[in-house]
Specification:
Structural class: alpha+beta
Strand order of the largest sheet: 2-1-3
Number of helices: 2
Amino acid sequence: MPIYEYQCASCGTKKEHLQKLSDEPIPVCPACGSNTYTKLISAAGFQLKGSGWYATDFKNGPQSKPKTEMKNNSMSKTTPSPAPKASTTSTTK
């Protein structure tokens, strides 16, 4: 069953109520008896348990590649060798 959060516009009381999805919203504030008790919009909270996709794929956060792989990749790159110098000697006949 979900937990819904309510707030009274008259007295400002906030309270959580455990209700079924099919239950009607609670119209009366339990603290002051006003009819301004409204359901708030909030994020749903749930926890995944067991050996499902979360536990096996995402529980430890993103995994980066080991640094040794990165070093090997940078070392395997070849640097261009300098171009051969043109000969400046001229031949005369």
